[in-house]
Amino acid sequence: MTQSQVPVDSVKHAEATPEQPQPFRELGLKDDEYARIREILGRRPTDAELAMYSVMWSEHCSYKSSKVHLRYFGETTTEQMRSTMLAGIGENAGVVSVGDGWAVTFKVESHNHPSYVEPYQGAATGVGGIVRDIMAMGARPIAVGDPLRFGPLDADDTGRVLPGIVAGVGGYGNCLGLPNVAGEVVFDPSYAGNPLVNALCVGALKTEDLHLAFASGTGNKIILFGATTGLDGIGGVSVLASETFDSDSGGTGRKKLPSVQVGDPFTEKVLIECCLELFAAGLVVGIQDLGGAGLSCATSELASAGDGGMHVDLDAVPLRATGMTAAEILSSESQERMCAVVTPENVEAFLAVCRRWDTIATVIGEVTDGDRLVITSRGETVVDVPPRTVAHEGPVYTRPVARDDAKQDALNADSPETLPRPETPSELRAEILRMAAAPNLASRSWVTDQYDRYVRGNTVAAHGADSGVVQVDESTGRGIAVATDCNARFVALDPYVGAQLALAEAYRNVATSGAVPLAVTDCLNFGSPEDPHVMWQFEQAVRGLADGCAVLGTPVTGGNVSFYNQTGTTAILPTPVVGVLGVIDDVTTAVRSGFAGADGDAVVLLGT
Amino acid sequence: MSTRVGVITFPGTLDDVDAARAVRRAGAEAVPLWHGDHDLQGVDAVVVPGGFSYGDYLRAGAIASLAPIMTEVVRAAGRGLPVLGICNGFQILCEAHLLPGALVANAGMHFLCRDLELTVENAQTAWTRDYTAGDRLTIPLKSQEGRYVADAATLDELEGEGRVVFRYAEPAPNGSTRDIAGITDAAGNVVGLMPHPEHATSELTGPSADGLGLFTSVLARVTA
Amino acid sequence: MARVVVDVMPKPEILDVQGQAVTRALGRIGVSGVSGVRQGKHFELDVEDGIDDETLHRLAGSLLANPVIEDWTVTRL
Amino acid sequence: MARVVVDVMPKPEILDVQGQAVTRALGRIGVSGVSGVRQGKHFELDVEDGIDDETLHRLAGSLLANPVIEDWTVTRL
Ligand SMILES: Nc1ncnc2c1ncn2[C@@H]1O[C@H](COP(=O)(O)OP(=O)(O)O)[C@@H](O)[C@H]1O
């Protein structure tokens, strides 16, 4: 493959060719969205700009269908709930203060669709992505967890998807050296063909080390570090590749680039240590991980959170494929990359730390006067945009919300009262045996034995306990507890109450370990937002969760929305996975699950 | 002056913090050693800890065995320096030919993290003197490539010379030949094992404190 | 009975984590003259004579390789 | 510049759990006529013309394969 002569679609070229047709629909943009981009720019977007807007305005990145509902979390968060929160919704991950100068950050995120396409890599890169979110707050990741949902054991895809996903979660997390301390394995027919892979990460930091993602200070340098940038995870943006472009396989063009990414946990492990050394040395002004939407996301978010503009030169980006277009470089979702803002006098020291860790680091741009994000490639300006319009001012939809009364009422009318009850001892015996063998009740050790729960030597409780308990400070014994839960069948019956039950269960699981629950994260897995009944489930679940949090006094500090979880037109059960994090002053006092006492101890049932 | 035990960090090493903590709990000073250095800093013993050095790409331990620090470890081991390889460290010692045989994919092909019982078979090595032959230790095993293999002649030699140091008390869950969990070199100063004694040095964060004995054993040996 | 070889390689546009690690290791141990290494899987199959190429390709693409991220070749020895 | 292939296979006396797993999976997906599968590694190297066979064999036997458990072949394409 030679450096091809693809003409650069520069801003100048775009101005000169206003009528050139662009494949915006293939990129997922609606007609009015495309029109709005033209209006913002006062011209047609370049290919590179179109690539940026289309990924950043996607449902996944812009939260365009959920935004109007998620605002409710903010509206219901009281001053008192905010008092321990150092960073909340909108940051890479929420941060809460846990005492003694320590803070903890945690978040759960979905990687559902990629895990169906390529179970091992999909799940692995799901873990990798959430870990980088935690690193971007300035924290050391200290534990991971993995709420998982599969179709029935005998469903067509489960035999392929389940072992691959579990191996991927383990393969990546184990290699990173992060103990896996919590999670779920749930089977239900609605997840056949659409497994849910939610990945959770917890990080710890000293409160003064909190880093937020912003690019400020004219002249400060933008440094891209970690892995090289390749053609993986480009997916949809391939439609922008030129037809004249020869691929390795000969003459067909790069029409179909894979949308999956391949993870390299070793590079990420080194990146973690490298980042922590950079933070400790005070070499970082702002930092952002590269996840979905790659450099498009990182540059536009850093720039719009800062007080100036930004210039980035794509020719400086280290590539692992030849002839990549500007649009491809900007959209690549190659894993294990971070972007930092560094003052000019610290650049050499920054690069020296990266060299020590064999981590590639390159100055790719700088913070500028003014308010534009300008990106150049081969000497030409290919992007010149107001960064906020890319990162934060995407479209917002108020989708129709409607309870499907017939469906919902029928569901609720089908009550367990009508189910046959075991009447004789032998029927009861058969029933108990059936339950013991049911996948949803059986031991999870086939899964959890594939996860390292010991690494770093701080795990006080993991699998088999109600919540994972991890020591944060060895000298004081201060630690955290974390649990995730969601019974989606309850949510289907009543999304408002069901979400509250998920919250209450996770909250109880944390409390019973002896910890004080402090904060909530969520991963809202639902069907298509274009289905009014699904939007009704979503709205109800958000309201239920937020109202529940207000009563308990624990804020939602962050989370993730995953829509379009459906097989054909059938949506999954609404699955708002809720994670609760608590603090425990002294982990030696943590309460273990199970009967640990002496013979003759009384067993007490609490509650109603 | 307290005993100084070096703990090597390669890129991708994970259990160095735990190994260092175990060394301190045993009453010694933990000295961090860096893969790229040619310097053992005059330590009295070395631990090659667990993890996924260089991602374990190619073969577990293969790339790490070529690191500059390993040249020094091999040289010092030949002069009698106590060296302990745990999990990935064991794999590295085999790849560096300090110990015979090799570690290959678990029989079940999955990563396996489980608490299990080990039997101490040889309490004469630099790292097992504080145990008595026949002791049973509860220690976590966590590895993907933990099945010990060697040709029959090597196995017979190991058995004949009492160089099998630890055996799985139950049938090896990773399919390890003759249930071998750990071995030593002919001189008894280099020991490698797949399970993780450094994760069993406190009841709070491990299944037992049975693993501490390896780290205390070496102190006795060094100060003797 | 025939011997069939299936070689499976990561697609060129997919990150070859293993090959990269080996390439870097070469530099570290001072091997010069080898500029790039790519690593894949090598399968040897014992196959009855009646099995046709199409079956072999189907087998390779469904069990031995993941077409999303890997390419493969089938060779009869 | 030459392309060199190194194939590395587990020695026959070493239990090849991966190959066995593939063999079992064949039965599950209903493929018959394939009686045994063995799995190894396939390396493709870009090598400068000056590099001789002996160097390549040394490289293969010291880095790409572990002679304790593996056999290997070197082929120039
Ligand atoms: N995918 C998973 N990853 C990690 N831990 C898990 C996973 N699934 C279940 N667990 C752990 O196994 C234990 C039992 O899980 P579960 O059956 O969901 O019980 P419960 O939700 O009642 O606590 C819990 O400690 C949970 O954290």
UniProtKB/TrEMBL annotation, chain B:
Tell me the keywords, alphabetical order.
ATP-binding, Cytoplasm, Glutamine amidotransferase, Hydrolase, Ligase, Nucleotide-binding, Purine biosynthesis
Q: Does Nucleotide-binding count among this protein's keywords?
A: yes
Which GO terms fall under molecular function for this chain's record? glutaminase activity; phosphoribosylformylglycinamidine synthase activity
Primary localisation category: cytoplasm
Q: Which pathway does this polypeptide act in?
A: Purine metabolism; IMP biosynthesis via de novo pathway; 5-amino-1-(5-phospho-D-ribosyl)imidazole from N(2)-formyl-N(1)-(5-phospho-D-ribosyl)glycinamide: step 1/2
Q: Which reaction equation describes what this protein catalyses? A: N(2)-formyl-N(1)-(5-phospho-beta-D-ribosyl)glycinamide + L-glutamine + ATP + H2O = 2-formamido-N(1)-(5-O-phospho-beta-D-ribosyl)acetamidine + L-glutamate + ADP + phosphate + H(+); L-glutamine + H2O = L-glutamate + NH4(+)
**Stored InterPro entries:** Class_I_gatase-like, PRibForGlyAmidine_synth_PurQ
What top-level branch of life does the organism fall under?
Bacteria
Q: Which residues form a coiled coil?
A: none
EC number(s) per entry: 6.3.5.3, 3.5.1.2
Q: Show the active-site residues.
A: C87 (nucleophile), H196, E198
Q: Which HAMAP family match?
A: PurQ
Q: Summarize the subunit comment.
A: Part of the FGAM synthase complex composed of 1 PurL, 1 PurQ and 2 PurS subunits.
Q: What is the protein name given in its UniProt record?
A: Phosphoribosylformylglycinamidine synthase subunit PurQ
Name of the gene this protein is made from: purQ
Automatic annotation (TrEMBL), chains C, D:
Q: Entry's Pfam families?
A: PurS
The pathway entry for this protein reads as: Purine metabolism; IMP biosynthesis via de novo pathway; 5-amino-1-(5-phospho-D-ribosyl)imidazole from N(2)-formyl-N(1)-(5-phospho-D-ribosyl)glycinamide: step 1/2
Give EC number(s), comma-separated. Answer: 6.3.5.3
Tell me where it mainly resides: cytoplasm
Q: Where in the cell is it found?
A: Cytoplasm
Catalytically driven reaction(s) = N(2)-formyl-N(1)-(5-phospho-beta-D-ribosyl)glycinamide + L-glutamine + ATP + H2O = 2-formamido-N(1)-(5-O-phospho-beta-D-ribosyl)acetamidine + L-glutamate + ADP + phosphate + H(+)
Task: Name the top EC class.
Answer: ligase
Q: Does the keyword ATP-binding apply?
A: yes
The UniProt entry, under InterPro entries, shows: PurS, PurS-like_sf
Role noted for this protein: Part of the phosphoribosylformylglycinamidine synthase complex involved in the purines biosynthetic pathway. Catalyzes the ATP-dependent conversion of formylglycinamide ribonucleotide (FGAR) and glutamine to yield formylglycinamidine ribonucleotide (FGAM) and glutamate. The FGAM synthase complex is composed of three subunits. PurQ produces an ammonia molecule by converting glutamine to glutamate. PurL transfers the ammonia molecule to FGAR to form FGAM in an ATP-dependent manner.
What HAMAP family does the annotation carry?
PurS
Q: Give the family this protein belongs to, as stated in its UniProt record.
A: Belongs to the PurS family.
Q: What is this protein called?
A: Phosphoribosylformylglycinamidine synthase subunit PurS
Q: Which organism is it from?
A: Pseudonocardia tropica
Upper classification of the source organism reads:
Bacteria, Bacillati, Actinomycetota, Actinomycetes, Pseudonocardiales
